[in-house]
Amino acid sequence: MKKRQVVVKQRKSSYTTTSSSSNIRYVECQKNHAANIGGYAVDGCREFMASGGGDALTCAACGCHRNFHRREVETEVVCEYSPPT
């Protein structure tokens, strides 16, 4: 099951209502573990999982900070129009 964070923004005018929601996921780790020797090697971690300890920004699988994981943002915008009566 995928966890998702939903943010809803609403702007109301007399005729339209706009709603947007964003789903943010942190997927594979892109930290280059061989950068100090001039190479390229990643650890193979496929998805960020927050560690259960005091630091929620550290991945429980690979130990890297969340910033090393690629961020995926899915945004959905819904606009409804109701004509004046």
TrEMBL record:
The keyword NAD does not apply. It holds the Pfam family ZF-HD_dimer. Keywords: Metal-binding, Zinc, Zinc-finger. Residues 26-72 form the ZF-HD dimerization-type domain. InterPro entries: ZF_HD_homeobox_Cys/His_dimer. The keyword Cytoplasm does not apply. NCBIfam families: ZF_HD_prot_N (TIGR01566). This is Mini zinc finger protein 3-like. It comes from Camelina sativa (False flax). The gene is LOC104776000.
